[in-house]
Structure formats: C-alpha cells, structure tokens
Amino acid sequence: MGSGRACTKCGVSKQLSEFFKDSKSxxxxxxxxxxxxxxxxxxxxxxxxxKRLAWQKKYYxxxxxxxxxxxxxxxxxxxxxxRGYHAAYREKYPEKERERHAKKSLRYRTEQPELVKLxxxxxxxxxxxxxxxxxxxxxxxxSEFVVLEKDIASIYSRPCVRCNTTSNITLDxxxxxxxxxxxxxxxxxPLCKSCNSSKGAKTMTEWIGILR
Length: 212
Description:
mainly alpha, DNA Binding (I), subunit A, 10 helices, 8% strand, elongated
C-alpha cells in the first residue's frame, strides 16, 4: 500500500490518514476521504433532520437513565469539547440560553431554596471583591463619586485599621451611609469582618469610645 491514494469522490490524492478505516475493504480503508464522508453525512442529516430528531427523542425516552449516565461521563471525559459546544451554543442562541438559565434558576429557588442560599453564601465568601463591586455599582447610581475597581482592591490589600489582621478584610465606610457618609474613596477603610460587625452603624469616634 502506498503512502497515499486518490479519493473516489473528490478525486484528490491524500495521505492514508485522511481516510476512515473500513474492515470490509481489502485495503482496510474507505474509498472516499474523511472530508467527503463528513460532507455526505451532513447532507444526509439535513435531508432527514426531522426523522433523525424524532428517532433520537424516542431512543432517549426509552433509554433515558443510560443516556444520562453516558452524557455525564462523556462531559467528564471531554471537558474542552464540552466547554466549546456550550460557548458556541451561547453565542448562536443567546436568548435561549438566558431563558434556560432563568428556568433552571427558578426551579432551584422553588424546589431547593436552602441550597440556593448556601450557594449564594459560598460564592460571596469566595468573591468578597465582586460582592463589594456589585454593591458599589448599585450605590454609584445615586452617588456623585466614582469608585474604581482598583480602589476597592486597594482596600482589600491593607490590614484592618483596628486589629491589624490581614484575614477576612472587608470595606467599611468610616462615616456610615446611614449616617450621611459618602460612598467614596475618602470614606473607605479596611476592617476585618469581626471589627466591621462590631462597629456596625457607629462612627469611628463612637465605636472606639465603646471599646475603651
């Protein structure tokens, strides 16, 4: 067998690796190349799409449990392809994807509210900066001051101004918003979660006075 052969469909000479295997063939390969076989497969699918989809649905319903197990295993074995398929689908059908996520979110909130609450808490604990930024964007709608992401990051990189710990840092308003304080860089300071909880809606003077 030579290093190449001509495809019987397109007539182009190609490497043997460009032909699918065929155990019934004397040479062990199909006579048409992979590109031609794939094109023929796509054309056949489009010409019989409705019948094919109906058959797939019928097969799925008859073998639902095994189909689900197979699909889950395939996704675990092919994470890159799975992400690629999902990304392509989201780009092609953004409205359908948003609708699907909305329905899924509603179902979880209705059927498993405690689990959703736990997910939300875990996400907030893992992403304190994002939580603060989300809150900051909401407050920015009614604030005359502009707060940048780097300003928030700077707060989280500094130790607590009260106990000097670098763990569980939060953003505190020196003059609380409820007391007329502004959501601005000049009114920010880093406090650990414990100290921030202790300070509450007090001013620094009031809070330090209580601690003494």
